Amino acid sequence: MEGSQLIRARRSIRNYQSGVKIPQEQIQQMLEAAMMAPSAMNSRPWEFVVVESEQVKEQLMEVHPYCKMLKTASLAIVVCGRPDLQASWGGQFWPQDCGAAIENLLLQALELGYGSCWCGCYPVMERVEKIQNVLSIESIPVGIVAIGVPNEHPEARGYFDPQRVKYL
Amino acid sequence: MEGSQLIRARRSIRNYQSGVKIPQEQIQQMLEAAMMAPSAMNSRPWEFVVVESEQVKEQLMEVHPYCKMLKTASLAIVVCGRPDLQASWGGQFWPQDCGAAIENLLLQALELGYGSCWCGCYPVMERVEKIQNVLSIESIPVGIVAIGVPNEHPEARGYFDPQRVKYL
Lengths: 168, 168
Fold this sequence. Notes:
By secondary structure, the first copy, chain A, is α+β, with helices and mostly antiparallel strands. Chain A has helices at 3-9, 24-35, 54-63, 94-111, 125-135, and strands spanning 46-51, 75-81, 115-120, 140-148, 165-167. Chain A starts with a helix and ends with a strand.
């Protein structure tokens, strides 16, 4: 799909066809898209945890109150920030850099025919710490992205709001 | 261009053909793409300042040390966070939400044939405050995005790094 259509067609999907396995090649395409995002000083301050294990998905649902859609999702990709990769020059741009990476991931998922839902983690530190424990990671979970074949088809909706724009 | 190609073709462009005016319709397409990004609780915690004034571009270059490419850029779109729009439920996801909006903006610019460069602002507070003064805004500048017709054509480069991925 054309990029501009893709951007406008994306919706958060919270209900998926259960039992669908996503091929490894497509998982890698989504990760690659995420890693193609720009980042401050090209520091690429991110890492990713791909969760297909039903048990780990269950644990994530226990520690994050708003990711129940993982029940039917094929997998979760947890996008995590690596502040250490910006520390040498004092950069703290990693949350917004991870936001850009997540958007690429969502768009690539849609192009492959999948729906997705981004569940925020950082800076809710209680949530962050529990997810770190579940995944055995030291990086900082910014978003849990649920991915799967949509079992609902909400229409695209537009939000262009001229009142949010100032011209100088 | 197909979305997945667009994601992989994007590069930061720092040299533009000067004197090019971008049609208002295309400016609006870029703003619309930005506003189609997902956000926590659909709060859309953003606003935008489109800067075509040479004088204001000059002032931005004075207060932000790394946006000299504005000299030849057709315009800047300053993407600003609105924490107030997440305050009612205590959300502080606006920096990453703005990151997603910026990525959509960059992709839409590329699809329209423009190059772009994202210059980080928040959380460098000295920079933030000076930009707020230049633009007379209360929202928080997250990124200054320079946009114009590329006068350089760096090749796409790939960063897929399997060492940044853990599977569970």
